[in-house]
Amino acid sequence: MRTIIIGSGAGGLTTASTIRKYDKDMEVVVITMDKYVAYSPCAIPYVIEGEIKSFEDIIMHTPEDYKKERNIDIITEAKVVDVNSKENKVVYEKDGEKFELDYDYLVLATGGTPFVPPIEGKDLEGVFTVRTVEDGMKIDEYAKKSKSVVVAGAGAIGLEMAYAFKKRGLDVTVVEMAPQILPRALDPDMAEKVKEYLEKEGVKIILNKPVEKIVGKDKVEGVVVGNKIIEADMVIMATGVRPNIELAKKAGCEIGRWAIKVNERMQTSIPNIYAVGDCVEVVDFVTKQVTLSPFGTTAVRQGKVAAKNIVGIKAEFSPVLNAMVSKIGGLELGGVGLSALSANQNGISVIVGRCKALTRARYYPGGKPIEIKMIFDKNGNVVGCQIVGGERVAERIDAMSIAIFKGVRVDELANMEFCYAPPVSMVNEPLALAAEDALEKFD
Amino acid sequence: MRTIIIGSGAGGLTTASTIRKYDKDMEVVVITMDKYVAYSPCAIPYVIEGEIKSFEDIIMHTPEDYKKERNIDIITEAKVVDVNSKENKVVYEKDGEKFELDYDYLVLATGGTPFVPPIEGKDLEGVFTVRTVEDGMKIDEYAKKSKSVVVAGAGAIGLEMAYAFKKRGLDVTVVEMAPQILPRALDPDMAEKVKEYLEKEGVKIILNKPVEKIVGKDKVEGVVVGNKIIEADMVIMATGVRPNIELAKKAGCEIGRWAIKVNERMQTSIPNIYAVGDCVEVVDFVTKQVTLSPFGTTAVRQGKVAAKNIVGIKAEFSPVLNAMVSKIGGLELGGVGLSALSANQNGISVIVGRCKALTRARYYPGGKPIEIKMIFDKNGNVVGCQIVGGERVAERIDAMSIAIFKGVRVDELANMEFCYAPPVSMVNEPLALAAEDALEKFD
Question: Residues in domain FAD/NAD(P)-binding (chains A, B) (predicted)?
Answer without folding.
Answer: 2-286
